[in-house]
Every structure is written in structure tokens, then in C-alpha cells.
Design brief:
Length: 474
Amino acid sequence: MKKQINCLFMTCLCMLIAGCSGSYSSLTDNALQKMEKQEYNTAIKDLIKAQKIAPNSAEVYLNLGLCYWKLGEPEKANQMLSKAMELNQTDSQAYLYCGIIYLEQDLLVPAMSAFKNASRLKPNSPEIFTWLAIVEMESKDPIASSLYLKQALSIDPKYKPAIYNLAVVYSTFGDNPKEAEKYCQEYLQLANGGDAQKELKIRTFLQQIIKNNSAELNTTPQEKTAKREKSDSLIRQAKHATENANYDSAIVLLDQAVNTDPSNPDALWEKAAFYKEELGDNLESEKIMNLFYSKFPADKRTPKNYSVKKSPLENIDWHEDNSKNAELAFSKGLECYRRGQLDDAIECYKKALFFSPTDKLAAYNLGLAYKSKLDYNNAEKAFQTTLKLDPNMIEAKTMLAVVYRMQKKYLNAEKTLNKVIEQNPNYAKAYLYLGYVYQDKGEAQKSVEYFKKFVELEPNSAASKKIKAWLDTL
């Protein structure tokens, strides 16, 4: 990790600060020369002088951040880089370097956030995709990591850092020795002695893969049986731990069961079931289940004609312009929503917000998709996000109230709908939903009062006719 960070740092020194003249230019040139010589303290002095001449130069703050980082002062580095981002919100570099500094401190969540912001500003960068993959690797998520790395290679098929990290992912996590061998060989063909330390690591991986393949070929039937029995025993121990609510031990035992006999389908199957049924982690369970289906296609538990689910955004031709990318993802989301493909719609709306975090319509439609899935917790968050972007969006307030009602948060629903009525006393749906809230609470008189107001304001709608027919029976 440190080796990658140091190499990246050296590339930034080639960045020249253009468009300036006189003493400012000489100060910044001197600072860059000192940074190349690793004289960071004296470089800082020159950059601070340059800062006084041009206080709004994002490049000065960027290079100050890099100097403080190399001096082992990450807090000062982040302050400088944050200022660089504030002054130039269209440059991905400050976000990228912030992410690397966070990663160096093992702060994975802020690192991921910084890299995602960098990717939003520069969506087709194999370098940024590779850093995103490294965070996922550090988070022990080889599937997500390999997906980012393959995105990097779809942009530049010969991008060595992506090939190197794919070799590391497949070799370290050991689920696919053929892919591990493929990327190890590919990296060594491209390396040409560029990084002896990395080459040694990959050659070690490759030797281990060949050794494992040879061992597998030479394993006797008795040894295979012993591995399976040990793996099955670990599964039974994991189930016993689960019955006693000892989930930490259970997951360790299931991992051991998978590693002891990677050819045991029951080990992966039980691990997927554990994440879903005991931890409620449907996303992780789905990842493991997809791995099970791909590794054991002949198993009776694998659906016939199984294929890995493709992303609805897979074939989109992304642009350099993020606003256009947001429109493309949003349009695809609408298309998926109309077809009832709610998971795909959610993925698309999230991508639209990735490219355009202030897109209130993407946030609102994300809430609608979650609501349709009956995922009221995430729907609530999406509608709250919408209202942060546009506090007066009456539809979002109304849908937030509906979601509150579905979660039995009646007081929140009542307060929100009353605010809608304050904003627009003739907004009929607010009275309809308040009627339902009071009906749920058992306040029949209030419920009837609001239903009548709804019918008065919107007499010809289908909902109004149903409510009127019901009122007539009272």
C-alpha cells in the first residue's frame, strides 16, 4: 500500500502551476523543485509565500496538502486538500489524494467517500477505479474489488495497477485459481522489471497456485474424503454456535469450512444462508450465493439457466460531462421503474445521484422505488434527502408522511401532512392521507372530517369516488 502511495505522490510533482507570472511563478517553481528533492519544510515556506500572493489558488493548497502528508501530518494535509476542493470543485485530484491519505490511516469509509467523489468528477479514470477496488479489498470484499478493477481494465486493458491488484485479489481470496493464474501471468508479461517488489510478490503467488494445482492433482481419494469430513464438521460447529447466538464464532467456523474444502458446496451455501437469516445482510448473502451458483452450476440448488445478473447500466456509454451521465442514469431508472424492475431502478437512481448529488428528482424517485419495494426505512431516508435539496417539494413531504404512516410513526405523519396543508391548503392528497392516519389511530370523527375535505377538493378522482361511496354508508 505505502509503495503505491509513494509512486502516486511522485507523479503529482510533475503537475505544473500554469497561468502565473513573476514572483508567484518563481515561488511555486522553487517549491516543486524542493518537493522533488523531498525538502518539504522549505517547500512549504515557498508555498505559503505564494499563497499570500494568490490566496485563491487551489494548486497551492493541493501542493501544501501533499507536503504535509509526506511530513506525516495527515490532519494538516486534509485541511489543505479540503481548501483545494473548495476553491476548485471540478478537479478530482484533491479528492483522490484525500482518499489516499485516509486509506493510509485505515479510515476506509471516508476513503471510499473521497474516491467516489473523485470518480464522480472523473468517471472514466482507471486510476480512481483501482483505488476504489483497493478500499473494497481492504474491506475484505473481493467481489466488489474485482468489479472495480474490471471497470478499470474496460477503459485501459493494459493498466498495470489494475492487473496487479486483480492478481492479488484472486490469489489472496483463493476462490478462482484460474483467474489468479491468468492475471499473475498477464502482470509479469507487462512488468518488465519496473517494480521488483511487486514482481516478487506476484511470482510467489504464481508458484503457490502451481503448487496448489499440483497438490490437487496428487490428492488421494482418502485425503479428499478427510477434507470434506472436516469441512462438514466445521459447518455443524457453526450451526451449534448460531443456536447459542455466538455469531462471531459461527462466521469464523464457516470461513474455515469454505477454506478447508473449497469444493464443498454446503460450506458456501450455509455461509450465504447465515448472512441472510442470522445477520439480515441480504447484499452479502446475494454475493455469496452468486459465487455458489457460478462455482457449482450442476448442484440441484443452482437454478436452471442461471446467469449472473447484469447491471442495467452495463451498456451505457458514459460521457465526461457528469450532468449528461446523471440524465442517462435517471432515464434508465424511469424505464426500469415502469417495467416493475425495482432493484434495477434503485441502482440507476443511485448512480444518477452519484453523478449529480443535488438532483432532487433522482432522490425523490429513489424514495418511490424503495416505497414500492416496501422498504420504508430507505424510502424515508430518500425522501428526507429530497427535502434537504428542496424543502418546499410538496410531493416529497406527502410521500414522507405516507412512509411514516406505513411505519406507524403517526405523530410524524400528522405533523408532516399539516405542514403540507400550511404550504398549500388546497392540496387534496394531504387531507386523504391525514384521514388514513386518523383512521389507523382509531379517531373516527377526525378521519371522516378529513376524508370529506378530500372529496370536496377532488370530487372526480377514482380515490374520491371510493371514499364518497364509503362515507355514504355511514
